[in-house]
């Protein structure tokens, strides 16, 4: 007898995401935002940005290039001087771990389990980033939900990892394996 989780795992199928597709998204984003060569190269190697761009493809969404470019543009705005202050974590974001990811959580169709896995992986990366920055944020008196006790780091991390690992995705694992990643998750 097959469990419901096993049935769900068998039913989940991801679509491919190629290096050529990523290169195209990097080129388009760099052109739109007038990246200099160094910033463009940084983006090309940025695991989180690549996951943001890949997710509509991996999930098999309709018109994945449009969705990916829209999400990447939002990401660049949130990480750039002109928009960073509007996207910083605030007390109002504490109620839902996914509130700051809302702008990049809209997809046209696609396999919901793959989308949810990707959003959980992005949330885990964000949580890890807050944890990594907690000491520095205390020194600079910058608001951090981990320091404030609004987010229980260990509990949230375990819950997210469990949800992520329940849905296999070789494509996502190649981009961002589950676990702590490199410094500078969100900057570009």
**Secondary-structure element order, N to C:** HHHHHHHHH
| Structure annotation, total helices | 9
Main pleated sheet: none
Query: What's the N-to-C terminus distance?
Result: 48 Å
* Content-based structural category: mainly alpha
The helical percent reads 55-70%
What share of the residues does DSSP label as strand, in percent?
Answer: under 5%
Overall average pLDDT: 88
The radius of gyration is 17 Å
Q: Overall 3D geometry?
A: globular
- Enumerate the spans where pLDDT stays under 50 for 5 or more consecutive residues: 1-10
* Number of β-strand runs: 0
Report a brief summary of the structure:
The chain has 188 residues and is an all-alpha fold. Helices cover 60% and strands 0% of the residues. The termini are far apart.
List its salient traits:
disordered N terminus; mainly alpha; globular; 60% helix
How would you portray this structure in words?
By secondary structure, the chain is an all-alpha fold. It contains nine helices and no strands. Helix 2 crosses helix 5 (64-79). The longest helix is centred in the last third of the chain and has 29 residues, at 112-140. The chain is globular and about 40 Å long. 32% of the residues are buried.
């Amino acid at each position: 007898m097959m469990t419901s989780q096993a049935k769900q795992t068998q039913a989940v199928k991801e679509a491919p995401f190629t290096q050529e597709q990523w290169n195209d998204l990097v080129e388009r984003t760099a052109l739109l935002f007038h990246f200099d060569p160094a910033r463009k190269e940084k983006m090309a190697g940025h695991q989180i940005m690549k996951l943001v761009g890949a997710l509509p493809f991996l999930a098999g969404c309709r018109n994945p290039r449009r969705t990916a470019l829209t999400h990447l543009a939002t990401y660049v705005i949130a990480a750039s001087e002109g928009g960073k202050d509007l996207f910083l974590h605030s007390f109002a974001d504490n109620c839902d771990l996914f509130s700051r990811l809302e702008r990049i959580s809209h997809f046209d169709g696609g396999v919901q389990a793959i989308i949810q896995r990707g959003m959980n992986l992005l949330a885990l990366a964000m949580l890890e980033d807050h944890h990594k920055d907690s000491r520095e944020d205390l020194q600079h008196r910058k608001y951090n939900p981990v320091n404030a006790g609004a987010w229980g780091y260990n509990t949230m991390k375990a819950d997210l990892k469990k949800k992520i690992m329940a849905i296999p995705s070789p494509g996502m694992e190649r981009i961002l394996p589950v676990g702590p990643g490199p410094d500078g998750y969100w900057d570009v």
